[in-house]
Amino acid sequence: MPLVSMRQLLDEAAKGGYGVGAFNVNDMEQIQAIMEAAKQTNSPVIIQASRGARQFAQDKFLFHLILAANELYPEIPIAMHQDHGNSFETCKSAIELGYTSVMMDGSLKEDGKTPSTFEENVEVTRRVVEFAHPRGVTVEGEIGVLGGVEDGHGAGGSGLDHITDPDQAVEFAERTGVDALAIAIGTSHGAYKFTKKPDGSVLKMDVLIAIHKRLPHTHLVMHGSSSVPKDLQDIINQYGGKLKETWGVPVEEIQLGIRNGVRKVNVDTDNRLAITGAIRKVLWTQPEKFDPRDYMKPAREAMQKVVAQRMTEFGQAGHAGDYKPIPITEIAKGYADGSLATRPLVAAK
Ligand code: 13P
């Protein structure tokens, strides 16, 4: 099966009322962990690579690993997504490589740090949509600014600094035609999201619900959605690590989001924690080991366990075979004839 349009995966998720985890990768073992988890749970998959990941692995290595995954797991629909594209050129290069989805994060300027203006964001995102849609490629935009930094990308600060304004979200979706929209509701990238256990009032779910009501056809995306589980933190610290006490986004909050229009859920940190904990454990308890397979195998298994759990919790488990993937050339026709337009219901305020 060829790589699948992310738009199709998310449209199907909307029909089924579930969310799809979008897991970041840098290397072969992470891709293998995701694919084994998908096979185990019979889940459709979104694999995403940041600019940092593309640089680390080199484009060709990373993309050919995805093609290998696609060949080895023909029963699993896979969408390949550029996470946090910082410019038109970054998105264009991903599309030219064969990615079936790109995020144009125009909420920040090209340096990936400084918040941009609304008009700048609309302008660059619309340009990416105009390039991507005729090629059948999905576009995710971002409005509002997430907290924290990931792979050198991010404004830093707390997730509560730049919460999305629902009016701006509607105008942004209308003027850009994005398929999916990342909104800022108080989450942030990385391990240090909250300094105490967040209760139900920490995330701005009312903002999310208001946006979904007015943009029912634009799939909402929750970034910074790692739950930073205490058991994964403890393994790292038990075997010589020095993580400070921290809390992530409770899975119940993500599930509440999924009941209110969240279709793509970004998770990276939890997998990093799982991998690092497993490697530390081997090196700490068996210091005589030096074959990388002795620690990479448990690391891969630890990530598979986290991914399979999230796939089950987000509801995508069991849905890999529900639908026939549409070639992206057909998806391109849907954009051209207007059948895939995501028109906001501005009236339903
Ligand atoms: P976490 O750091 O919470 O895993 O978020 C990852 C993310 O949003 C990638 O875009």
Topology:
Elements: H1 6-16, E1 20-24, H2 28-41, E2 45-49, H3 51-57, H4 59-72, E3 78-85, H5 88-97, E4 101-104, H6 118-132, E5 138-143, H7 166-176, E6 180-183, H8 205-214, E7 219-222, H9 230-238, H10 251-258, E8 262-267, H11 269-285, H12 292-314, H13 328-336
Parallel strand pairs: 1-2, 1-8, 2-3, 3-4, 4-5, 5-6, 6-7, 7-8
Helix pairs in contact: 2-4, 2-12, 3-4, 5-6, 6-7, 7-8, 9-11, 11-12
Bound molecules: 1,3-dihydroxyacetonephosphate.
The site of 1,3-dihydroxyacetonephosphate has 14 residues, from strand 3 and strand 8.
What does this structure look like?
- This protein has 349 residues and is of the alpha/beta class.
- It is 45% helix and 12% strand.
- It is built from 13 helices and eight strands.
- Strands 1-2-3-4-5-6-7-8 form an eight-stranded parallel beta barrel, surrounded by nine helices.
- Strand 4, helix 6 and strand 5 form a beta-alpha-beta unit.
- The longest helix has 23 residues.
- It is globular, with a radius of gyration of 19 Å.
- The C terminus is likely disordered.
- 1,3-dihydroxyacetonephosphate binds next to strand 3 and strand 8.
